[in-house]
Write a structure and sequence with these properties.
This protein is mostly helical. The chain has a single domain, classed as Four Helix Bundle (Hemerythrin (Met), subunit A) (Up-down Bundle), CATH 1.20.120.330. The protein has five helices and no strands. Helix 2 runs parallel beside helix 3 (65-72), helix 2 (33-54) runs parallel beside helix 5 and helix 4 (83-89) crosses helix 5 (107-127). It is globular, with a radius of gyration of 14 Å.
Length: 132
């Protein structure tokens, strides 16, 4: 296994842990909706970075999912299908993390964020199957 593949698997594992965190919280008696949304954004970010490093490309140090998408598109043009999911997840990386932020996510927001993260995982599984 190449060093690139191993590093991509490590990024994927971190992203899958974020999904596990989101799922565990969604099943909790008291659901921290902001935390669920944050971990869904983090999962998508880490999966995009897994794709980049798995293809021998550096990743920018950013939480901006649409910027990451711009790095992915020249390598795999059909990643464009992720734009809506990534746009939905974008505010959850930074904007909702602190008191007084713009909005508080609802249960529907959290479920929608989880589905968006799943779309990224499904895309990654097809785009870079060797890391699974």
């Amino acid at each position: 296994m190449s060093a690139e593949t191993e590093l991509a698997r490590q990024w994927l594992a971190k992203g899958q842990n974020d999904l596990l965190n989101a799922d565990n919280n969604l099943n909790a008696e008291q659901v921290p909706l902001d935390t669920v949304c944050f971990h869904c954004q983090q999962a998508a970010e880490k999966m995009l970075k897994a794709f980049l490093v798995g293809n021998g490309h550096p990743h920018p140090f950013t939480h901006d999912l649409l910027l990451l998408l711009q790095y992915v598109l020249p390598i795999h043009a059909n990643a464009e299908q992720l734009r809506d999911a990534l746009s939905l997840l974008m505010p959850y990386g930074v904007e909702i993390r602190y008191p007084g932020d713009a909005f508080t996510p609802t249960e529907d927001d959290a479920k929608e964020a989880r589905q968006a993260a799943e779309e990224v995982l499904t895309w990654l599984r097809a785009a870079l199957p060797e890391i699974f």
